[in-house]
From TrEMBL:
Gene3D superfamilies with a match to the protein in the record: D-Amino Acid Oxidase, subunit A, domain 2 (3.30.9.10), FAD/NAD(P)-binding domain (3.50.50.60)
Molecular function per GO: flavin adenine dinucleotide binding; glycine oxidase activity
Stated name of the protein: glycine oxidase
Pathway: Cofactor biosynthesis; thiamine diphosphate biosynthesis
Organism of this sequence: Metabacillus litoralis
GN (gene name): thiO
Domain annotation FAD dependent oxidoreductase: ranges: 6-346
Transmembrane segments: none
Length: 372
């Protein structure tokens, strides 16, 4: 006999697991089918920055959604740890976006007009906080709310919490097809088994095109490869995340400094290249000169799921089928995971939604633009 569930989630990355957790909390029966190991995709490659203000420049619906998601981490850090006993390594010491020229300082100061929580710190103020940074800086934009987490631990904590609340998590089970049987019955097929579900959520990141095509939908999600490296050094003290020229250094709680990340479009490989790592080292050394003598611990790469306009697809199938999408979170899936979980929960439970978010993340928005 086929196992029966209210909701079947395809993909066990941070997005699928966040949705599973929120649904399981409501006593909805959920199965998550993960093709590999939980969190094995982009989630385990991420640096874990919760960069609402550092990543998103406009004060629009996307920014509001990101801020709400960032806020959710403040309660999730306790709820997930209490339930799963996994510490998500939440650090809220903020971030500096640095300026090396007056022109760069001007651009950063302009951003403060949009976002009131941001502060401009002079060179002396920044160096008093972070003495190992280059003496060539002219100052930095201090973003107090942009902290960071450990993505692998968040994903594992969502997964374990969902499972303790009754969700079934199945690893090494790629879904190869979805078949509609009746009004509210879909079958998810894997090579080993079949799962009968009333609702389906497609949350398989950069691989979502496979189901877009299967469902005759024209949306696209493309890979943007990102390479990172981690170092350690007893001679470097760094409190806050440092951001300059698309590069960042995240000081993790375990003493590692994570440096990222390159942006390579349409590249499906997940092996870091010498050239990619070299670029990062060249960019980061003038910012934190002492990094030259740090120990290189590891390098890695992952695939960010990018949509045409850089915003995720979070919404229902356009024909009103009980098929939902939560994919295309691009550079910010760790930041956006909590709010994506509650939004998909509310979509499935037919609760009141913020219409600005429904419009901003609608899966047909890019098609509508293209037709105009
Ligand atoms: C180098 C790098 C740095 C990043 N840094 C940050 C950061 O600092 N902050 C931030 O917010 N975001 C960051 N991101 C982005 C973030 O990692 C992603 O947006 C996020 O992980 C997407 O999560 P996901 O669950 O949608 O995808 P994934 O984590 O890729 O999960 C999708 C899962 O679906 C599974 N799957 C695929 N096909 C199937 C199938 N047919 N059946 C079943 N399962 C399937 C895969 O095995 C995978 O586990 C970074 C990304 C990279 C690459």
């Amino acid at each position: 006999m086929k196992a029966k569930y209210d909701v079947g989630i395809i993909g066990g990355g941070i997005i699928g697991q966040s949705i599973a957790y929120q649904l399981a909390k409501e006593n909805i029966s959920v199965v998550v089918l993960e093709g590999n190991k939980v969190g094995a995709g982009a989630t385990s490659a991420a640096a874990g920055m919760l960069g609402a203000s550092s990543e998103l420049e406009n004060n629009d619906a996307f920014f509001q959604f990101a801020k709400e998601s960032q806020q959710q981490y403040k309660t999730l850090r306790h709820d997930l740890t209490n339930l799963s006993q996994i510490n998500i390594q939440y650090v809220d010491k903020g971030m500096y976006k640095l300026a090396f020229t007056e022109q760069e300082a001007y651009v950063l100061k302009t951003a403060m007009k949009e976002h009131h929580s941001l502060e401009w710190h002079s060179k002396q103020q920044v160096l008093a906080m972070e003495p190992n940074l280059s003496k060539e800086i002219v100052g930095g934009l201090y973003i107090p709310e942009d902290g960071h987490v450990s993505p692998k631990h968040v994903c594992a904590a969502f997964s374990k919490s969902a499972s303790l609340l009754g969700a079934v998590i199945v690893e090494n089970s790629p879904v190869h097809s979805i078949k509609k049987l009746g009004e509210e019955e879909y079958i998810l097929f894997t090579n080993q088994s079949e799962y009968s579900c009333s609702h389906i959520v497609i949350a398989n990141g950069v691989w979502s095109d496979y189901f877009f095509k299967q469902l005759d939908l024209e949306m696209k999600v493309k890979p943007v490869k990102g390479e990172c490296l981690a170092v350690s050094s007893e001679n470097i003290s760094l409190e806050k995340t440092i951001f300059y020229d698309h590069c960042y250094i995240v000081p993790k709680g375990d003493g590692r400094l994570v440096v990222g990340a390159t942006m390579v479009e349409d590249d499906w490989s997940t092996t870091p290249t010498v050239g990619g790592i070299q670029t990062l080292i060249e960019k980061i050394t003038p910012i934190l000169p002492a990094i030259k003598s740090a120990k290189l611990l590891e390098t890695w790469a992952g695939l960010r799921p990018q949509t045409d306009d850089g915003k995720p697809y979070i919404g229902q199938h356009p024909n009103g089928e009980n098929i939902y999408f939560a994919t295309g979170h691009y550079r910010n899936g760790i930041l956006l995971a909590p709010k994506t979980g509650t939004m998909v929960r509310d979509l499935i439970l037919k609760r009141k939604l913020n219409e600005d978010y429904v419009k901003a993340f609608s899966i047909t928005r890019n098609l509508a633009k293209a037709a105009r």
